[in-house]
Amino acid sequence: xxxxxxxxxxxxxxxxxxxxxxxxxxxxxxxxxxxxxxxxxxxxxxxxxxxxxxxxxxxxxxxxxxxxxxxxxxxxxxxxxxxxxxxxxxxxxxxxxxxxxxxxxxxxxxxxxxxxxxxxxxxxxxxxxxxxxxxxxxxxxxxxxxxxxxxxxxxxxxxxxxxxxxxxxxxxxxxxxxxxxxxxxxxxxxxxxxxxxxxxxxxxxxxxxxxxxxxx
Length: 216
Hints:
Blueprint: E1 6-9, H1 13-25, E2 30-33, H2 36-43, E3 51-55, H3 63-72, E4 80-85, H4 90-98, E5 103-106, H5 111-149, E6 161-162, E7 168-169, H6 171-178, H7 189-215
């Protein structure tokens, strides 16, 4: 799996560059924002980065305010947010985490600690994505099961089934499209005796007659 993209938002250019360099060294693609407003525009876009490192104190919107906006959207796959802060008191840390941040790193950031915390965030995001895919697949399977449990209009002669668009389909085509069922063809004993065996016997008789005629 490719490394997840990381947003680094910090109004201090030196700090922003240093943190970005650490992440790039570890193989993460990085995008930058110089303030909270631009960070929010990036995170509120159609394809936001999966991870965000937000400085606590920024012009416009502070880091915790950006976090609150993210959480208020109730996204199915929200970004994993780490607050960058020079505040190291327990009260400030608790406030940031209760406000919706997933983790925090004190400034100036230690490279090993920063990469370790970002790696944890990347694993969490990947697990959330895998879980969301699993749930979506289960919901689709459940919808297919429910569809198969409904009353199906079937032709009394050819056994075709009428679909939701009012078109008639072969039974195997309908079930293949609405479930994970696939078909292989065979013969039941009754149909073999009624249809297949007489055809085989007729074919054998025709071959015997041709051979007899050839021999004259």
